[in-house]
Write a structure and sequence with these properties.
Elements: E1 7-12, E2 27-32, E3 35-43, H1 57-74, E4 82-89, H2 95-106, E5 112-117, E6 128-136
Parallel strand pairs: 4-5
Antiparallel strand pairs: 1-2, 2-3, 3-6, 4-6
Amino acid sequence: MRPSVSTKRYGINPEHLTPPRAAYSHAYVVDIDIARFIFVTGQLPIDLEGKVVSRSITDQARFVFSRLVDILTAADSSINDLVKVHIYLVDICDFPAISPIRDEFLSAVRPASTLVEVSALPREGCGIQLDAIAISGLTTCIVSSKDS
């Protein structure tokens, strides 16, 4: 017999972010007894008026990473809880430009990461999109090589 596990699932849509225009949430949270799993939907550099924030890939990158922080905060989490990040670029040659911004936000936590070039994103003028997975509420346990 499986042990009983309490779960709760809900969407996160911070009011200060662009409202989702379809059947999705900015993040979906799954709370279980031991942890909170946060699945962040792909974030585009779109402002509250529905416009691309800038033509600059560095401005777009800073915007989507800042939104990631906002969404994780709304889910009672933080950038330190990230375990996986996916970055989608329309032009892979933009990687050197966005890399310092990525490092600024992620160097302390160093989550698993995937970067891919895509032929297009859902909104014209967007050069970057990112999504992420975070797990919060777990106690960090450091195991030395002698213990393993």
